[in-house]
Design a protein that fits this description.
alpha/beta; Adenylosuccinate Synthetase, subunit A, domain 2; Adenylosuccinate Synthetase, Chain A, domain 3; 3 domains; 12 helices; 20 strands; 31% helix; binds guanosine-5'-diphosphate; binds 6-O-phosphoryl inosine monophosphate; binds magnesium ion
Length: 427
């Protein structure tokens, strides 16, 4: 495998968790590099279903060390809860299996309140529909140079004074709103306990990752969210607050780009989005409802129904270009099994003009009219296929067309949520 970055190529929830788990069979290390517990990565093993938010999806295979890199924003209370829940289900999560970067910025209780406050203050049509996990405010503090980092948990006195100072500052803002101010003593009590629990996991992971790279270990970087939620390239301002694209793997881990061998793009065979913002191929009709029901499209983090639509080749081609995708992992092909025909968006029409590149302006994406081509469905189950040749002919034609339109080869195909419902393809 060498050193690979895996990213979501759409609006998140492409099935990254499942593909990471499958690929981890052959890797020594899995590294999260951005985002936080806004992510919900599902791994299904036999009859067991796990949803991970901060712990890398490689945790189920003992051969891999899991690393939470410096680019991740970590809610210490949530990470503690996640580790404990995994342990209760007999998954080994010790400091031997999981490392947390000294440089991670921490999501504090006031960040969660600020996230909710900002959303409440936004007028209708402007609300982002965040996960309310405090992601944006924590990254804002990092950029404003007032954030608290994981290394501060190693010195309880220092952590306490930093927390109290920041919490008091935020309480002046919170008190001026309709929100209830933080009970600083009560919050500190919880944080002190959690800091003690997490301290053994905290280490300089830049050294860990670089050592592994120098020793030619196989490393897999686990992206969270997806291309169109990237703070630079996404449908701004309806985005998350980190770089979800390939380059984020380097800034979020401390590994030089010269080590990256290849990039895997996870791509659903159709499109979904959770939260607000433009979505040109969204289906607000029975077909959209049908996709949601067939694909069980409900958020893994917030449980919100995901918006569903046809495959968007305009957005996906641009995404493959920015991410430098070497190999696509196409997921949820089985969800399309019952359709008589399928549509693929090949161009947008904006103000009467047709284009095949994603506009940079959100206002243009909002009014873009999708231009479709139609392909016949296959109307037979694909969930038992274990090779490209075992797929119905129309499914093969559909996949080949996606690959051609987005300009990237297909390397993995997923036909169900389970580990074994996956096969490789040399497309
Ligand atoms: P992630 O955030 O990219 O890891 O994706 P999520 O876990 O949020 O959402 C993907 C959902 O689709 C999960 O419920 C997975 O179990 C499920 N899933 C993944 N691959 C497939 C597939 O090929 N077919 C079906 N039917 N479900 C899949
Ligand atoms: P995974 O890793 C899908 C969306 C939210 C919202 C926007 C900003 O499971 O693919 P935030 O809380 O990050 O400030 O919210 O981003 N969002 C996701 N959508 N999958 C995710 O993660 C997401 N993480 C954030 O719904 O629209
Ligand atoms: Mg998800």
């Amino acid at each position: 495998m060498a050193i690979s970055v895996l990213v979501g190529t759409q609006w998140g929830d492409e099935g990254k968790g499942k593909i990471i788990d499958v690929l981890t069979r052959d890797v020594d290390m899995v590294v999260r590099f951005q985002g936080g517990n806004n992510a919900g990565h599902t791994v299904e093993i036999g009859t067991e279903k796990f949803v991970l938010h901060l712990v890398p999806s490689g945790i189920f295979r003992n051969n891999a060390l899991c690393v939470i890199g410096n680019g991740v924003v970590v809610d210490p209370l949530e990470l503690t809860k996640e580790i404990k829940e995994l342990r209760e289900r007999d998954v080994e999560v010790s400091p031997k299996r999981l490392e947390l970067s000294t440089r991670c910025h921490l999501i504090m209780p006031y960040h969660r309140i600020m996230d909710a406050m900002h959303e409440q203050a936004r007028s209708e049509g402007k609300k982002i529909g965040t996960t309310k996990r405090g992601i944006g405010p924590a990254y804002a503090d990092k950029a404003s140079r007032i954030g608290i980092r994981a290394l501060e948990m190693l010195d309880p006195k220092r952590f306490e004074s930093r927390f109290r100072e920041q919490a008091e500052y935020y309480n002046t803002i919170i008190s001026a709103s309709a929100m209830e101010a933080l009970d600083i003593d009560a919050e500190w009590a919880k944080l002190a306990e959690t800091a003690e629990f997490l301290a053994p996991f905290v280490t300089d992971t830049v050294l860990t990752v670089n050592k592994a790279a120098r020793e030619n270990r196989n490393i897999l970087f686990e992206g969270a969210q997806g291309m169109w939620l990237d703070v630079d390239y996404g449908t701004y301002p309806f985005v998350t607050s980190s770089n979800t694209t390939t380059s984020g793997a380097c800034t979020g881990s401390g590994l030089s780009p010269k080590y990256i061998d290849d990039v895997v793009g996870v791509m659903k065979a159709y499109t979904t989005r959770v939260g607000a913002g433009p979505f040109p191929t969204e289906l607000l009709d029975d077909t959209g409802e049908f996709l949601r029901a067939e694909g069980h499209e409900f958020g893994a983090t917030t449980g919100r129904p995901r918006r569903c639509g046809w495959f968007d080749a305009v957005a996906s081609r641009y995404s493959c270009m920015v991410n430098g995708i070497d190999m696509l992992a196409i997921t949820k092909l089985d969800v399309l099994d019952k359709f008589e025909e399928l549509k693929i968006c090949t161009a947008y029409e904006v103000n009467g003009e047709r284009g095949t590149d994603m506009p940079s302006d959100n206002d243009e994406i909002t009014i873009a009219k999708p231009i479709y081509e139609t392909m016949p469905g296959w109307r037979s189950p694909t969930c038992d296929a274990r090779s490209f040749d075992e797929l119905p002919e129309n499914a093969r034609l559909y996949l080949n067309r996606l690959s051609e339109l987005v300009n990237a080869k297909i390397g993995i195909i997923s036909v169900g949520p389970n580990r074994d419902q996956t096969f490789t393809h040399n497309g």
